Amino acid sequence: MLKNLLFLTCLFVATSAFAQDTLKFEKALTVASGSRYGREAVYTDLLAWKMANNQLQTPIENGEFSTGKNGEKVLWKAITADSKGRFSAFSRRAFQTTNNPFLNPGGVDRGSDYIYLTYTSPTAQTAILNVIGGNSLFFNGIPHMGDPYASGYMNIPVQLKKGVNELYVRGASIVPMIIVNAKKLLIHTDDVTSPSIVLNEINGILKGAVTVSNSSLKDYNDLRFKTTLNGKQREIAVARIAKLSMRKVIFEFDASAVATPGNYNVELQLLQGNKKVDEKVIVIEALNSASTHKQTFVSNMDGSLQYFAVTPQLNGWKPNSALFLSVHGAGVEAIGQAKAYKSKDWGTLVAATNRRPRGFNWEDWGRKDALEVLSLAKNQFKPNAQQIYLTGHSMGGHGTWFLGATYPDKWAAIAPAAGYASLKDYGSADGKIPDSSQNSVERMLLRAGNQSDVPKLASNYTPLGVYILHGDADKVVPVSYARQMKKLLADFHPDFSYYEYPGGEHWFGDQSVDWPAIFSFFKWHTIPVDSAVNHIDFMTSSPGISANYRWASIEQQEQPLQYSRIILNRDNKQAMITGKTENVATLKFALTSFKANTAVKITLDSLTAIDYTTRSANDTVVLAKSNGAWQVLTQVNPRDKNPMRSGTFKEAFNHKMVFVVGTGGTAEAAETNLNKAKYDAESWYYRGNGAVDIITDKEFSAAKYQQRNIILYGNAENNAAWKILLKDCPIQVNNSQITAGQQSWKGNDLAAYYIWPQQDNRLLVGVIASTGVAGMKAAYANQYFAGGSGFPDFMVFSADLPKAGSKGIKLAGFYDNKWQFDEKNTAKP
Which residues form the Peptidase S9 prolyl oligopeptidase catalytic domain (predicted)? Predict the structure, then answer.
């Protein structure tokens, strides 16, 4: 076998701080594996399936990988690195025939390629693996996050075994390296989150974050960062860094001695006790108060450090001025976005980050980041509550369409530039297939992503001013997307403006975002106060994403993740609320426009009127539909689904979640659980600039981890935290079967993703469960961190999922509002 393995040539690179060998690859094999990943839970990956089921043969040149639909052989082919060390899988076109079922009519499906490399290590040792490019990878069978955007900062600690080590990378173009270090704890400065020093305003104790890798075989809980800037020192404890892992960690520095603009060195020392284990220098910029700058904050989502950028108001910010939230395009840093705008004399501009330059398409956690930054900016700059505006470019144009439709009461006007409205229409085949060709499971999964279908929510734009800007020569996001929305708005919208920039490509200078007409348009739009809004027309796909509009809130749906709509009229003089609802089970009204002890008559859907007497000037009333009639709900069960805890599965990755890994059972099961948790943590770091605590089930206690969502890995027999958190859950998983309500499936190759409410009224448990190792390996793929992907409350599947796609899913669906199974909202093959 060894004569068929490909060996690498090693290059030696030494630094003054420590010795390291950087091992670069020269040759590899590649195959069009037929893998397919989209923005939903269904995926196919034949190589991953073969690996999980011990059917993957060691690749050899011209060796057969699989047989295509027409009986032709799909073969491994040799490729060679270019002068930059890059392997390009799609350079093998000459080796393929037109009947290859994995070739699209337009060329190679690059997502289907795998590249295979090997390294023969003279000894068992640890190292750092850095693969630039590639969507995901397996190193000696262990899954890791790739680097699809070629960022270069995925420094993944790995265990090298003596002899042959195998690397499979899914992707079309990669630069792989293995770094063997003398030091096991390393500070990496290729992914720094840092603030600006703003003289006389933001120049005290500031926070930054860097990645630290631990390529040792022990956990570190006792590390500290010591920083020095202009003679000022600061120390802070470092979060736990588990063995063979990387983590973005926070440091602090004292900027109080900085008095003039310029670049300043911050010395970082990583300490263990009195021992310095590594040190680096980063550069921080000091600016005057009129300059566009960065501010950092600790995110409520996961406790990680994030940043936003600010273009200050001209001549200094003034309370009661306007606030502009700008959302950037794919690959654009928030600070670059903010710098494209000149300061305005009537307001401050703030650019959120979407957690990363590509992040989550301003959906999911990108949506949460935008709202968190908006809240921080309101607290800091004290703007006029009626002068809040939203704009963005490219992916940020989509973000503007999405956030504008999802939260229409937050903005006076919006201005999408070079944007696409729906992810289902742009850059993805998901959702484009006619419903008639989808099975019920696929439709259920697409339904879980309904929030992404922005045109369905277009009526929510009615109260907003909308300005659409697009270059008519845009080849990245064709102008047809703007024209689509122009046509849609023209049918009903009373207040929108549209401009196509003649000859404008995707970016035609700073005016692509800082377009004077946009801000002129903004200036004559304001948000009406609630007391002046007596007509409401609001739609949502889920109360867990957006529930409130003005004085009404959709608390629960009849059909989860189907569109809900309320059309309401309020008459303060007559003390009446009338209207109609669609797909609404529970509705809440704020009655602040009515005086205390006022008899209010509420008539919904032409049903029997409800007479309700207000108790105070701040009274609210909750109405529930039961047996075709609306009734006042005198007592709300906080454990039921509600806007604070509504699902879907992805909602569990919030509230400073902690990953709890099952260690019981066999050593292989425990290792597989841990591998999956670490893969998820790497993915969360890469896609969301995030940081996660990973602990074992033996370390978990409910008291210690209060006010945090819990993500469990394993099952009832190998995760000791299971009986604490899931004893009353209708989905149970052990080593031999999965039971979901009245249904059950037997075998050691099953897996499930699902959520369950904790005992409090806000938090969730997210579960990644399997009956055996093969099941957990089928669960390795984690498209739930892809922005806009659709995952329902629960799904049960077998290890055949990577091979059979949706046919491998046993059950998918949503709980009812009592967190019980509802046949109307479940799907089976």
Answer: 361-514
User: For residues 542 and 563, is the Cβ–Cβ distance under 8 A?
Assistant: no
Structural domain 298-523, CATH architecture:
3-Layer(aba) Sandwich (3.40)
Strand 710-714 with 305-311, pairing:
unpaired
Q: How far apart are CA 564 and CA 112, in angstroms?
A: 38
| Beta pairing, strands 576-582 & 564-571 | antiparallel
Beta carbons of 776 and 674 less than 8 angstroms apart: no
CATH class of 21-93+107-182: mainly beta
Please give the CATH topology (third level) of the domain spanning 649-827: Chitobiase; domain 2 (3.30.379)
Closest CA to 58 of 122, 101, 6: 6
Tokens linked to 727:
């004893």
* 5 three-class SS: coil
Q: What is the 3-state secondary structure (H, E, C) of 435-490?
A: HHHCCHHHHHHHHCCHHHCHHHHHHHHCCCEEEEEEECCCCCCCCHHHHHHHHHHH
Name the DSSP letter for residue 652. Answer: G
Give the tokens for residue 435. 């419903």
d(CA 752, CA 746): 13
Please determine, for residue 111, whether its predicted confidence score (pLDDT) is greater than 80: no
H, E, C per residue of 383-441: CCCCCEEEEEECHHHHHHHHHHHHCHHHCCEEEEECCCCCCCCCCCCCCCCCHHHCCHH
Q: What is the pTM of this model?
A: 0.94
Peptide bond before residue 648 is cis, with ω within 30 degrees of 0: yes
The predicted-structure confidence for 6-27, as pLDDT tens digits, reads as follows 333 333 233 333 346 888 899 9
Q: What residues are paired with 66 via a beta bridge?
A: 74
418 near 467, Cβ under 8 Å? Answer: no
Q: What pLDDT does 101 receive?
A: 25
> Burial letters for 405-425: b for 16+ Cβ neighbours within 10 Å, e otherwise?
bbbbbbbbbbbbbbbbbbbbb
CATH code of the region 183-289 = 2.60.40.10
Q: What is the pLDDT of residues 660-673, one digit of tens each?
A: 999 999 999 999 99
Kindly indicate the confidence band of residue 428, based on its pLDDT and cuts at 50, 70 and 90.
low
CB atoms within 10 A of CB 749: 20
Identity (one letter) of the amino acid at 11? L
Q: Please count the other Cβ atoms lying within 10 Å of the Cβ belonging to residue 379.
A: 8
Q: How far, in Å, CA of 702 to CA of 27, rounded?
A: 51
Cβ(556)–Cβ(585) below 8 Å: yes
Give 34's pLDDT tier (boundaries 50, 70, 90). Answer: confident
Beta strand 107-108 with 103-104: parallel, antiparallel or unpaired?
antiparallel
Least confident of 319-323, 441-445, 712-716, 742-746: 441-445
CA angle 151, 156, 158 (to 5 degrees): 155
Instruction: State whether residue 653 is helix, strand or coil.
Output: coil
**Partners of 13 in beta bridges:** 20
Segments making up each domain of the chain, as ranges: 21-93+107-182, 183-289, 298-523, 530-557+561-632, 649-827
The three-state secondary structure class of 163 is strand
How confident is the model at residue 91, as a pLDDT?
A: 42
Task: Give the three-state DSSP class for 683.
Answer: helix
Listed in sequence order, the residues at least 6 apart from 792 whose beta carbon sits closer than 8 Å to its beta carbon are 444, 445, 447, 448, 560, 561, 647, 648, 649, 812, 813, 814
pLDDT given for residue 616 in this prediction? 93
What interhelical angle do 395-406 and 365-381 show, nearest 10?
Answer: 80
Does residue 201 register a pLDDT over 80?
yes
Question: Quick one: how many helices (H) and strands (E) in the chain?
Answer: 11, 54
Report the half-sphere exposure of 133 (CA within 13 A, side-chain side): 18
User: Hey, what amino acid is at 450?
Assistant: N
